[in-house]
Design a protein that fits this description.
single chain, 87 residues, alpha+beta, 4-stranded antiparallel sheet, 21% helix
Amino acid sequence: MKFLGMDEIVKKDTLIYYRNEYKGTASFTLIGEKRASVKFISTVEIKPTGERDINIELLEQIDYPVIPIIKVLKQEIMNIEKEGFTR
């Protein structure tokens, strides 16, 4: 599996200042050259200690183990949080 990128990522405005929500589509190359896209929702909650708790929900079925995909998406969302959302 190879992560190709995220498209159509949108940050939802929330009234809770310690919580960020993102919605988007992630693209992957799976086994061989098969490409797949999956829509997701991500919630990032900032704890009082400053640690970020990231939850990913896949909105579509994908014919591949889910754990590696969620792991990559969590890392990418963490990068967006560190750099700041600019889209």
